[in-house]
C-alpha cells in the first residue's frame, strides 16, 4: 500500500500501483503521462475498485463528455462550488485547471476567492450564480432560478448538465473534506 | 420519448423503454420486476446513457456493495441528507426505503422530519449527526468530527463509505431539485 | 397521573382523565368521540388547567373561527411553519390534517418536505412564502412582504389572521420541541 | 373605531372603547388604571374578541400565574426572544418591564442589545441561553439543552413554563412584526 | 493605571490621566469638557498611544470630517452596524448620539432594535439597507447594491465615505466585543 | 488623477502622484522602493488625505508595531478574516504576504481556502479559530472564547492586539468590497 499520509488522513487499504488490476493501472499510467501525476482523489478511491469505477466513469462523462458547457466552464463551476464549501483539495486541483484551460491565472484566483469579483459575461455569471445558490441553499431553488438560466441562453439539456456538475462537486467536496484529502504538489505551480 | 412531465420539469430527450439499448432495457426490466417500477431518477438519467452508466454503477456500489454500514443505515443517511437539503424526490423515495428495510414506519417519519427526535443508539446518532454536519456546514468539518465517529465505533473504512453516501445524496438532491424531479407514485404507500 | 412517557419527555404532573374537572373532561371526551383520541398536546397542557384554558381558546379561535382563510389553508400554514422549525409533533399531527381536509395525501407530503415543490395557485404560494419568511427570518419582514399578500388577494384582516396562525405554530413548535412531545399513534395512518 | 395608525399598519376593524362589551371594557379600564394605558397589543386584538379572549388568558397565565420563574425572569425571557427576532414592539414594551421590575435600567439595555454582556448568575444565564437557542434554532434543541437547564437548577415544570414563555413571544413577535404594531408612547420613559 | 474593570474585561496597561503625554491629556480634557467624560474606547486605546493616535485620527475624519453624509447619518450607520453585530458598547454610545443629534429619542430606539421599523426617507432607507447588507453578508455585495445607492442619490464619493463608516464600526464592534468594553454611565440618560 | 479603473470601481478624485503633498509622495515612494508598487488601497485612500493619514497610521501600528503577535501571524489573521468575508483584494494582497513571510507557499493557499486544513500548532489554531468566530459571528463571542486564547498562551495585551487586527480587516474588507478595489498585479506571482 502507498503511504496514505500523502493522500488522505483516513487509514485506508490503498494498493500500490503494481498491485492494481491491469485496466486500472493502465488508467493511472495514462494520468501520469498526460498530467504528470495520478490525482490523489483517484488514488484514494482505488482502495475500493468498484467505487473507483463508478466515480471515474461519472467524472469522465460529466467533465469531458459532450455538453453545451465548455470544459473550462465545467472547471469554473467546480471551483465555485468548492469555494462555497471551502474544500481545499478541489480548490487547489480545479483552480489549477481553470488557470490552465483559460490561460488567465487571475480568473482562477477570482473564482477561488469570490466569483462575484470576476469579469464574466451574462451567461457565465448566471451559470455561477446558479452554482452558488444550488450549493449553499438547495431548498430554496425553484423554477424561478431555472428560468433565469434559460433567459441567459441555456437549453434544458444544458441546465441538466450544469446541475450534474454542481452536484458532483457537492459530492466530492464532502468526501475530500471528511477524509482530509491532500492535493498533489504539482497543482500549485501550474499556469501561475 | 416518454412524457417527461411525470419525471422532471426539464425538457430532456428521454428515450422510450423500447428504444433503449439491450443492457439498459434489461436493467430497467429488473427494476420493474423487483421494485414494481423504474425509479424516475434512472428514467431521467437515461437521456444520456453514459451519465446513467456512471451514476448507476456508483449508486449500486455505494448503496448495495460491501460495507461496514448496513443497507438500512445507508438509507437512513440518504433521508437525513435529503431532509437537510429539503429534497422532495429523495425524501419520498428513501423515506419509503427506510420504512421497508426497518419495518418501522415511524422511523422513516422521524428521519424525514427531524432525525434528532428518533430513538437511536449511540453509533447511529453519531452517524446521523455527522451526515447532518457534513451536509449543512462542510467547511467546518475537521478531524474532531471524524474522531467522534471513531469513538462511536466506526473504522476509517466505514468513515470513508459514510462520507461517500453523504456525498452521493448531496449530489443527487441537487440534481433532483434543479430538475424538479417527481417521485414515482408507488413509493408513497410502501410500508405505511 | 398518566404515563408521561407517551406524551412528553418532561416529568410533569399530568392528571388522569378521571381526575379532571368536569368541563375539561367533557372537552377531552368530545375529542375522543370526534377524533378518536385526545391529542397529546392537550394532555400535556392539562398539567396546568389555566394554561390549557388559554391555549385551547386561542387554538380553537385561530384554527376554527371565522376567517378569510379556509380550515385547510390554516393547516397548510401549520405544516409549513413546522417544516421550517423541524417540529416532529406538529408535522405528524398537522400533516395528517392536511391529508384529511384536502383528500390529497401527496399535498401533505409536499408541505412536510418542501412546500416549494407543491402545485399551488398564486394565492396559496404567496401565503406559504410569507409563512416561511416570517418563521425563519422575522427581523427582515417589512411592508414589502405584506404588500405581496395584498397583491395576491388577501385583505388586511386576512393578513392579521395569517400572521396569528404563523405565530401560533412558532409558539407550539417550540413547546413541543423543548418537551420532546410525542404525537398520538393515530395520526400516522390517517388518509394515506 | 380607533385610529388604527397609532396601533398597527394593517387596516383592522378595531372598535372604540365605548363599543366594547362590558367585560372587555372593564379589563381595559383596569389596564388604564394600573398601567396608565391600554397596551396596543390588546387594542389590536380587540378587532376579534374571541382572539383577544384566548390571547389574554394565555398571556395572563404564562406571565403572571404561579411558576418557578419569577415575573422579572419571564420579562427577561420576553426581551431576549424579542432581541433575537428584532421585534420593535416587544423590545420597547418588555424592555420597560425589565427596567421597572428589576429597578436596574442597564439590565433592560443589556437584554435588548445582547444578553451575553449582562451580569447574570449561572441559572439566569442558562435560562437565557436556552431562550436564545430555542428561538433562533429550534430544530437543533435536544435533550442535551434540556439537561443543561436541569443542571442549572430548573425542575421539569419550570422547563415547561420556560418553554411556554419562549414560545409565546415567538408568537407575539411575529404578529407584531407582520402588523407593524407600534408601542404605546408611555413605555419609552419608564424607569430610565 | 486606572481601574480597568470599568473600561474593559482585559487586563491592559491603561495609564492614569496624569501620566499621559501632554497632547493626549489635552485631547482627553477636551472630551471631558465637551462630553462630560472621556469615552471608554479612548481610555482603552490609551494603553498603546500609537494605536490611539491612528484610531482617533481615522475616527475623527470619518465621523466629523467633510462628507456628503451628515453627522447624524454617520451616527445612524454606526447604530445599524452595531445592531447587526449586537455590540453593547457601540449601541449605548451611538444610540445616545442619534438621540442627541436628531432630537428624536424614538429614532435611536428604532435603530438599536430594528432599523426597518423606523420612518425613513428613501435615501436613508437605502443607506441603512446597504449598511446592514455590507455588515452581515459582505461576500454578496456587488455592483448591484452600489447602484441602488446611486439611484437613491449618493455620489461615488458619498458611497466611499459610507463604506468607510460601515467598515469602521465593523472594526470597533469587534474590538469592543472581544474586550468586553463597558460604556460610560453618562450615555444612558442622554436625550431620553 | 490616475486612471481609477485600475484601482476601484467608484469614481473618486484620486490625485496623480506628482500632485500629492510632499510627505505622502515620500511615503508612496518608499512603498515603490520597498514593495515595487504603491498598494492600491493607499492610492484609493489618497482621494482624501486625512482618511489616508488615519488609515495608514493605524495600519502601520497594528501590522508592524510592537506586539506579542509576529508579523507573519498578523498576516495570517488578515487572510483568515478576508476568507470569511470573501474579500478578493485582501486575499490577494495578504495571501502574498503570508507566502513571502512564511516561505511556505502552501500555507498561503490553505489560509485563503480553509485555514482548518493547515498544519498549525495549538496557539495558531486558537488564534485563527478566534479570528474566524469574531469575524463571522461577533454577537456570540464571550469570555469563553477569550479564555480559550489565554489557555493557548496569549496574554491579555496579545488578545487586545489580536482583536484589533481582526477588526481592522473587517473594516478594510468592507471598504475594498464596496469599492470593488483591485489588487496590484505584482502580488499574484510573489513567492509562489
From TrEMBL, chains A, B, C, D, E, F:
Record has Oxidoreductase as a keyword: yes
Mention one GO molecular function: peroxiredoxin activity
Family annotation (Pfam families): CMD
UniProt keyword list: Oxidoreductase, Peroxidase
- InterPro entries reported in the protein's UniProt record: AhpD-like, AhpD_core, CMD-like, Uncharacterised_peroxidase-rel
**Which region is the signal sequence?**
none
Query: Which residue ranges does the record assign to the Carboxymuconolactone decarboxylase-like domain?
Result: 55-98
Name used for this protein in its record: Peroxidase-related enzyme
Source taxonomy lineage? Bacteria, Pseudomonadati, Pseudomonadota, Gammaproteobacteria, Pseudomonadales
Amino acid at each position: 500500500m502507498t503511504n496514505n499520509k500523502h493522500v488522505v488522513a483516513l487509514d485506508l487499504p490503498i494498493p500500490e500501483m503494481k498491485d492494481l488490476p491491469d485496466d486500472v493501472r493502465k488508467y493511472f499510467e495514462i494520468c501520469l503521462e498526460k498530467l504528470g501525476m495520478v490525482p490523489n482523489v483517484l488514488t484514494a478511491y482505488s482502495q475500493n475498485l468498484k467505487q473507483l469505477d463508478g466515480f471515474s466513469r461519472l467524472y469522465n462523462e460529466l467533465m469531458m463528455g459532450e455538453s453545451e458547457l465548455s470544459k473550462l466552464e465545467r472547471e469554473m463551476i467546480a471551483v465555485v462550488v468548492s469555494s462555497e464549501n471551502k474544500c481545499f483539495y478541489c480548490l487547489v486541483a480545479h483552480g489549477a485547471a481553470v488557470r490552465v484551460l483559460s490561460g488567465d491565472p487571475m480568473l482562477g484566483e477570482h473564482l477561488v476567492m469570490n466569483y462575484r469579483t470576476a469579469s464574466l459575461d451574462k451567461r457565465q455569471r448566471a451559470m455561477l450564480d446558479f452554482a452558488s445558490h444550488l450549493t449553499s441553499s438547495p431548498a430554496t431553488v425553484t423554477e424561478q432560478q431555472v428560468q433565469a438560466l434559460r433567459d441567459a441562453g441555456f437549453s434544458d439539456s444544458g441546465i441538466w448538465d450544469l446541475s450534474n456538475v454542481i452536484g458532483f462537486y457537492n459530492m466530492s467536496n464532502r468526501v475530500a473534506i471528511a477524509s482530509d484529502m491532500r492535493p498533489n504538489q504539482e497543482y500549485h505551480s501550474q499556469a501561475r
